[in-house]
Every structure is written in C-alpha cells, then in structure tokens.
Amino acid sequence: MYSGAAAVHLSKTESKMEEFGGNTHVANRGARMKSNHPTYVVMVKEAIQALRERNGSSRQKITKYIM
Questions:
Q1: What global pTM score does this model have?
Q2: Domain boundaries, the chain
Q3: What values do phi and psi take at 12, rounded to 5?
C-alpha cells in the first residue's frame, strides 16, 4: 500500500519533468558570450599607469578613469 503511493508520486513528478522539458535548473554553460571589454584587473592596471600619481591612485580616481 505504501509503495503504491510512492509510485504514484514518482509518476506525477516524472510527468511534470517531461512537461517542463527535464531538469530546468541546469544552466547551459556553452552559450555564454565573451565580453568585448578587458577584465577589471586589466582596466585598473591601465588606469594606474595612465594616472601616474606619485603616491598611488585613489579608488575614486581609478573608478572615474574606467567609467
């Protein structure tokens, strides 16, 4: 009696999975597009080199340069 109820529950779950096309929580990792801009680290390095501050560059100046 108990195993029959579990079998009915599994069949409902399986029918829902078929209705939604299987596991909907798995991301398609191959479809991710590459960005056209350099990475954040590269942009910060370029900003520090371009600002040429004697005592180092502040976070505000680096952000302003990047934006």
A1: 0.48
A2: 2-66
A3: -65, -40
